Amino acid sequence: MTNDIPARDSPIAGGVEDGPVSVEVPAWRIAVATLGKSPLSMVGLGIVLLILVLAIFGPWIAPFPDDAGATVNFAERLQPPSWKHWFGTDIVGRDVLSRVIVGARISMMIAAFVIVLAVLIGVPIGIIAAYWGGWLGNILMRINEVFLAIPSLVFVLAVAALLGPSLPVVIAAIALAWWTWFARLAYGEALHIKEEQFVEAAQVSGAGGLRIAFTEILPNLTSVLVVKITLDIGYVILLGAALGFLGLGVQPPDPEWGIMVAEGRDQLPNAWWLTTFPGLAIFVTVIGFNLLGDGLNDLLGARQ
Amino acid sequence: MSSLLAVDNLEIGYRDTDGVDVTLLRGISLSVARGEIIALVGESGCGKSVTAKAILGVLPDNLKAHRGTIRYEDRNLLELDEAAYQAMRGRAFTLVPQHPLSSLNPVFTVGEQFFDLIAFQGRTHVGIIDYWRPRLSASRRRAIRTRTIDALREVSLPSPEELVDRYPLQLSGGQSQRVLIAMALVGDPQIVIADEPGTALDVTIEAQINDLLLERVQARQTSMIYITHDLGIASQLADRVYVMYAGRVVEEGPTATVFATPRHPYTAGLLRAVPKVTDEPFEGIPGTLPDPKAIGQGCAFRWRCPFAINACAESVPPLSDVGDGRRAACVRATELELVA
């Protein structure tokens, strides 16, 4: 018995090849190289990294960290942007730049908790509905459709109004509206993956249903989930800011971007900086996550 | 002969969208003894793969077994609950699949594909804590890796130490099929069901895969059910052969005698349709498989059979003894002089 074909060089291994053994390039270097070809996704990655740094180290970066809270400094109220206050000051004299920087943490916290909860609820439901199907799948997906039929902003507003506005309520409310999208996505993907030969191969070698659902099918969803999560972080931040703006989200004096836009609205058009800079922060963050999501989509899509 | 696995008068069908019951397997009987290799041959659509899936208990949801038994040792598999069935898969019987390239999960390395097989095969209801236990123990991980490498070496894969860390897309078709054979054998099964394991590969690799399979199966005294439409392969591998047509066994017996002196016109037709190396043109069997809904009373082969008589349309000829340890399902089995 001879060997059939010498070890074929892997399509993802690039670089120098001498002899039958190919040089393995680490996956992250391929990712960086591919993403690097698209300048827009690099911009997105840069913005996302910046926002993450601000979210984690905000209080240490902000020039006037105390201004993030309920301090008052009437001597410096409503000052336009200057070298001391790059983004100007608000109606009680707090530094807008500091509040925007510290506000990144609140937005990212909402986004992170919402996405984690939505994935933890939605993905298992989608996979279970797809893999077992039948009446169980029907019930799960019909419940899912009921949630999908309600516009998420209306749903979140209703829950927030019912339970009283606070950070945990905002997170819970958005997560409750958001899991449906992940369930839908996981359902669609799992439906087609469960027909793959390797699922039947696992079945005939003695694997149980749960193991197939979560260790054969779930890992094949990773790439679509990563893209969806990245894109959704932007939308969740937008929804969180909208709630803050409407007064049903995080409450003052927390430096939430939506609240800051709402507070500055009374001072338009004179103190334009009060609304412009928090608004720009929302805009740039959402754009950043979208650009990164698109880049990841190309990167992960090309590998399939 | 005491058989390890015996399928008796198995009928499988589905209800179509108009509510009509359609029967796909119309009373299949076959048996495999310990260490025996049998071949199921027949053209596409005759029910070979459905038979294999029925034995493995992985029929699609819409297919139901109406009648018959599948007996493994002393148990009727059709009466088993799913957990008991699951515990037997991979240990009692296992599958070498038809499409090697799509039968490996693309997101796991070869080593990872073996991990759960070695750690958990034959068990059911493995909890999350038990599931993680072997993963967290360095010594268990090492032991499983060693066993994986040994299993890969057994199927003559080159440098298995490197291969365990490769992903399926880095393997050739032949390598993937070898990995799948190693995976099928790692649980030390009693019966290997090979569903045309070479059709997706080119012919030289196919021959190597078949040699390997035969060698591994004989070394372990494992039984094998080899499904193929290639009579040449069947004659090389199998001790006994079952010729299937439209959901029935039409002829069975020791491979050499069946192929030398076929007793059913369909077997003879199949043999004449094998391309030969001589100039002699080969003749196919005219027509195609009948629609399972339209077979009705008589022999399903009567429309394509050059020897059909009126009696063929009246009732289905039973599989009856025609001498030399063979059985054929043809009313004219003993009177016809068939040329292979």
The Rg value of chain B, from CA coordinates, equals 22 Å
**What's the domain count of chain B?**
2
CATH class of the largest domain in chain B: Alpha Beta
- CATH 4th-level superfamily of the largest domain in chain B: P-loop containing nucleotide triphosphate hydrolases
End-to-end C-alpha gap of chain B: 29 Å
Large-scale geometry of chain B? globular
Descriptive notes:
- The complex is a heterodimer of chains A (about 300) and B (about 350).
- With about 300 residues, chain A is an all-alpha fold.
- Chain A has a domain at about 105-300: MetI-like fold, CATH 1.10.3720.10.
- Chain A is built from 11 helices and no strands.
- In chain A, helix 3 (about 95-130) runs parallel beside helix 11 (about 275-300), helix 9 (about 220-245) packs parallel to helix 10 and helix 10 (about 255-265) runs antiparallel to helix 11.
- Chain B is α/β, with parallel strands linked by helices and about 350 residues long.
- Chain B is built from 11 helices and 12 strands.
- The chains are: A mainly alpha (about 300), B alpha/beta (about 350).
- The interface of A and B includes residues 5, 8, 12, 13 and 203 of A.
Features:
heterodimer; A: 304 residues; mainly alpha; MetI-like fold; disordered N terminus; B: 340 residues; Rossmann fold; 2 domains; 12 strands
Secondary structure layout:
The complex is a heterodimer of chains A (304) and B (340).
Chain A: H1 27-36, H2 39-61, H3 96-132, H4 134-149, H5 152-163, H6 167-193, H7 197-204, H8 209-217, H9 222-246, H10 257-265, H11 273-302
Chain B: E1 5-15, E2 21-32, E3 37-41, H1 48-56, E4 64-72, E5 75-76, H2 82-88, E6 93-96, H3 110-120, H4 128-136, H5 138-154, H6 160-163, H7 173-185, E7 191-195, H8 203-220, E8 223-228, H9 231-237, E9 240-245, E10 248-254, H10 255-260, H11 265-272, E11 320-323, E12 326-328
Parallel strand pairs in B: 3-8, 3-9, 6-7, 7-8
Antiparallel strand pairs in B: 1-2, 1-4, 4-5, 9-10, 10-12, 11-12
